[in-house]
Design goal:
By secondary structure, the chain is an alpha/beta fold. It is built from 10 helices and 7 strands.
Length: about 270
C-alpha cells in the first residue's frame, strides 16, 4: 500500500480531518511540545527573520513557530490543498503566519531568502528526501539553518508482550503510512552530501501511555486490513476495543523515537 501522505488530497476529506486532529493531539503532548521548543530555542531568530515550514500539514507545528518567533514572519508550505484549508482555519489567530500550497521540491521563494527552514515529520513520507533538502539549501541564506525533526519509525511499537496483536497494527501503520521508516539513520549523510554542516543532532523518546494519540494507528490500519479482506470487522473492532481497554486499565504502552538534526548552510 502506498503511503497516503504522499497524496493527502487523494486520500479524501475524512482522512484529512482525522489526521489534522491527530497531528494537533500529538503535538499537544508534553514531549512533542518540548522537542519543538528545544529546536526553536537553538535558532537565532530576530524580528526580521523569515522562517519556513515545509510539509506543514494542518499547521500544528507552524502555529508553535509563529507564537515563538512573533513578530518574525512564518510561512507554512504544504502540497495538500485540503491540509492548507485546515491550517488556515486553525492558524487564523497568528497575524505573522500564512499558509500556501506548494511542493517542497519547488518552493515559490527566491534563492537565499530564508533564515530558517523546518521540516517536521516530513521526510519519512516522501520518495526523494534529497530533493527537499537541496531545495532547502537553495532558498536558505548563507549561514541559514535547516531543522529536520522526524520519527525513527523502525523503532515504533505498540507491543507490551511477545506477539502482541496491537503491535501488528503498529507494524502495519509503518508499512502502509510511512515511505521510509529508516530516514533518521540517513539524515546526517544526506545533510553533509548537500554541503551543510550538522551542528546539532538529538534523539528523544516518546512514550504514549494515556490518551488517544496512537489510536489512529489501530483504527486506520484495521480499516485497511478489513478492506483488503485480511481480517474481518469483528477482529478490527476487538483491536480497537483492546486499545481502549488498556487505556482505561493504565496498561497502554506505545513508543516512538524522534530525531532532530540542525544543519547550517555555508556562509
Amino acid at each position: 500500500m502506498a503511503d497516503p501522505f504522499q497524496d493527502v488530497d487523494a486520500a479524501g476529506a475524512d482522512f484529512i480531518k482525522v489526521f489534522a486532529n491527530a497531528m494537533d493531539a500529538r503535538q499537544a503532548s508534553p514531549i512533542m511540545e518540548q522537542i519543538v521548543a528545544t529546536y526553536l530555542a537553538k535558532l537565532p531568530i530576530t524580528a526580521e527573520s523569515l522562517i519556513v515550514e515545509v510539509g506543514a500539514g494542518a499547521g500544528a507545528v507552524s502555529r508553535r513557530i509563529a507564537a515563538h518567533a512573533d513578530p518574525a514572519h512564518v510561512i507554512g508550505f504544504e502540497p495538500s490543498e485540503g491540509f492548507v484549508r485546515e491550517a488556515k482555519g486553525r492558524g487564523s489567530a497568528h497575524s505573522n503566519l500564512r499558509f500556501e500550497a506548494a511542493d517542497g521540491t519547488a518552493l515559490p521563494l527566491e534563492d537565499c531568502s530564508v533564515d530558517h527552514l523546518i521540516m517536521h515529520t516530513v521526510l519519512t513520507h516522501v520518495t526523494d528526501p534529497k530533493a527537499l533538502i537541496h531545495e532547502a539549501v537553495r532558498v536558505l541564506k548563507p549561514k541559514g539553518h535547516l531543522v529536520v525533526c522526524d520519527s525513527d519509525f523502525s523503532k515504533a511499537t505498540l507491543s507490551s508482550f511477545p506477539n502482541d496483536p496491537l503491535d501488528a497494527c503498529a507494524r502495519e501503520f509503518v508499512t502502509s503510512f510511512v515511505t521510509d521508516p529508516f530516514i533518521v539513520a540517513k539524515l546526517s549523510p544526506m545533510l553533509l552530501e548537500a554541503g551543510m554542516t550538522v551542528t546539532d543532532f538529538d534523539m528523544q523518546s516518546r512514550v504514549v501511555a494515556d490518551g488517544e494519540q496512537m489510536l489512529q494507528w489501530v483504527t486506520e490500519t484495521t480499516k485497511g486490513m478489513v478492506a483488503r479482506g485480511d481480517i474481518g470487522q469483528p477482529l478490527a473492532d476487538a483491536l480497537v476495543d483492546e486499545y481502549h481497554r488498556r487505556l482505561k486499565a493504565g496498561s497502554l504502552y506505545g513508543y516512538q523515537a524522534f530525531a532532530t538534526a540542525i544543519a547550517q548552510k555555508a556562509g
